[in-house]
Amino acid sequence: MQAPTPLAPMPKIDVILSEADLMARVDDLADRLVPRLTGDWTAVSILIGATPFTSDLMKALARRGVHPVLDVLWLESYRDARESSGRVVVRADVSRPVEGRGMLLIDDVFDTGRTLDFAKQHLIAKGAREVLTVALTQKPWAPRGEQGVDFCAFDSPGRFLVGYGMDDAGLYRGLPYIGALD
Questions:
Q1: Residues catalogued as catalytic
Q2: Can you give the pLDDT of all 182 residues of the chain as single tens digits?
């Protein structure tokens, strides 16, 4: 039997938002979203990073009596790099009907705005009646106003974030808090 491979040492990760604080921000966001989500809505999670956030947001909405249909859109612009390539690629499209529905587009980090803008235009081209954008967090330099995200749980520092779905070359997505690497 082969000896187990030793684990690589964990880098220093500064906790930006604890698990309890994260859940409070998700609940606050759900309270702000509920008045807008009347009629037929589909929540579209942008894979892979927004998965934990989407799950917790869906549960928070359900506790408030709001039950959007859930779908996913797998987009890629970072690969394993820490900066966007500037090009968004559809790895897997939504599978449910879009036409005539409100679409709640959910992402983890609103940074340059390219990914959410691409996804929003993609859903509008498929016939969505309305697209609301939601991000767990937004960077200080992210576009604001009309070009910004419609709803955001919190503003993050201008650091590289990991945890709660966000990764560094695929690592640290499972951390229950949001941390920053330098």
A1: 111
A2: 565 556 778 899 999 999 999 999 999 999 999 999 999 999 999 989 999 999 999 999 999 999 999 999 998 875 555 555 567 888 889 999 999 999 999 999 999 888 899 999 999 999 999 999 999 999 999 999 888 999 999 999 999 999 999 999 899 999 999 999 98
Q: Whole-angstrom Cα distance, residue 70 to residue 168?
A: 26
Q: How far is CA 68 from CA 45, 54, 105, 163, 164, in A?
A: 12, 11, 11, 25, 22
Q: Which residues contact 3 (CB under 8 A, 6 or more apart)?
A: none
> What is the fold of 34-75+88-158?
Rossmann fold (3.40.50)
Which two structure tokens, joined as six digits, stand for 129?
A: 């009646």
